[in-house]
């Protein structure tokens, strides 16, 4: 049996702009998440929190344990899941639909996930299950507007992991400036890839999912995922060569290996 969860949270979901996020609990009771106040969440109505002496650090709990605590009646554990996965969900949404709509869509994703928690059976990891919800919701929004995601600049998303798709530059100030410009241009080129290529690259390189997790998230066979990522790398390499004029092929798009 899992132990009671702690009350304090490390940080609120910083990518969210609304002051409060209200939803229905899987246990048919109202739950209120305060996203403006770091370390705070309203308790499940009508139920006392565990005593301080019985609490353990949230960082020690797995996603599956937090899900169990929610199912047992401690809906506040959901705030920890939000805090833990908000960056990945916001980033995936931004890559798929654009930065302007990412925050609202990310909130919708967490609402959908909360309501669907009773259906989570642990066949895949919680993270994979959550990203699948995020991907499907973003695809639904894209179909509604029949649009592609706009360009997301390096400054907007602020993630250094883009270097996984780029060659290592020489040292020095001029090289650093050149590297930043290359990153900006590569981002624009990534947005020109087909949706399936862009999503696979984002999940594998930037959300750091394994091949099988990408397959679960995209709901396609493992072999198809490997083919998508391979073809996406080749296509991106060709775009980079054509756009930047780098004649040498090796190192244009570095391969990421699973650890």
Could you explain how this protein is built, in words?
With 259 residues, the chain is mainly α. It has two domains: 20-145, RNA polymerase sigma factor, region 2, helix turn helix motif (Rna Polymerase Sigma Factor, Chain: A, Orthogonal Bundle); 154-244, Arc Repressor Mutant, subunit A. It contains nine helices and two strands, in the order ββααααααααα. It has helices at residues 63-71, 77-97, 99-116, 126-145, 154-157, 173-190, 195-206, 211-218, 222-244, and strands at 20-24, 30-34. Strands 1-2 form a two-stranded antiparallel sheet. Helix 8 crosses helix 9 (222-244). The longest helix has 23 residues, at 222-244. The two termini are 31 Å apart. Mean pLDDT is 68; it is low at 1-55, 149-164, 166-170 and 246-252.
The number of strands is: 2
Helix content: 40-55%
Question: Rg from C-alpha positions?
Answer: 20 Å
Q: Residue ranges: pLDDT <50 for 5 or more in a row?
A: 1-55, 149-164, 166-170, 246-252
CATH architecture annotation of the largest domain? Orthogonal Bundle
Structural class: mainly alpha
Mean pLDDT: 68
Elements, N to C (H/E): EEHHHHHHHHH
CATH C-level category of the largest domain: Mainly Alpha
Beta content comes to: under 5%
CATH topology of the largest domain: Rna Polymerase Sigma Factor, Chain: A
Give a short summary of the structure:
The chain is mainly alpha-helical. The protein has 9 helices and 2 strands, in the order E-E-H-H-H-H-H-H-H-H-H.
Please describe the topology of this protein:
Blueprint: E1 20-24, E2 30-34, H1 63-71, H2 77-97, H3 99-116, H4 126-145, H5 154-157, H6 173-190, H7 195-206, H8 211-218, H9 222-244
Antiparallel strand pairs: 1-2
Helix pairs in contact: 1-2, 2-3, 2-4, 2-7, 3-4, 4-8, 6-9, 7-9, 8-9
């Amino acid at each position: 049996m899992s132990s009671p969860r702690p009350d304090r949270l490390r940080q609120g979901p910083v990518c969210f702009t609304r002051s409060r996020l209200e939803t229905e609990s899987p246990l048919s009771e109202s739950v209120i998440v305060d996203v403006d106040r770091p370390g705070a969440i309203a308790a499940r109505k009508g139920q006392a929190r565990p005593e301080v002496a019985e609490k353990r650090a949230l960082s020690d709990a797995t996603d599956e344990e937090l899900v169990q605590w929610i199912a047992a009646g401690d809906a506040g554990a959901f705030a920890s899941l939000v805090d833990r996965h908000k960056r990945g969900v916001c980033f995936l949404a931004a890559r798929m639909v654009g930065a302007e709509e990412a925050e609202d869509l990310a909130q919708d994703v967490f609402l959908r996930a909360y309501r669907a928690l009773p259906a989570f059976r642990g066949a895949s990891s919680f993270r994979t299950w959550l990203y699948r919800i995020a991907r499907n919701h973003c695809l639904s929004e894209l179909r509604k507007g029949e649009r592609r995601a706009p360009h997301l600049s390096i400054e907007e998303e602020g993630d250094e992991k883009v270097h996984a798709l780029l060659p290592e530059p020489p040292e020095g100030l001029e090289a650093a400036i050149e590297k930043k410009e290359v990153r900006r241009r590569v981002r624009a080129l990534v947005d020109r890839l087909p949706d399936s290529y862009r999503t696979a690259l984002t999940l594998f390189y930037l959300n750091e999912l394994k091949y099988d997790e990408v397959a679960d998230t995209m709901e396609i066979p493992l072999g198809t995922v490997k083919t998508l990522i391979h073809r996406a790398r080749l296509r991106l390499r060709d775009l980079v060569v054509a756009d930047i004029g780098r004649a040498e092929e090796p190192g244009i798009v570095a391969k990421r290996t699973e650890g």
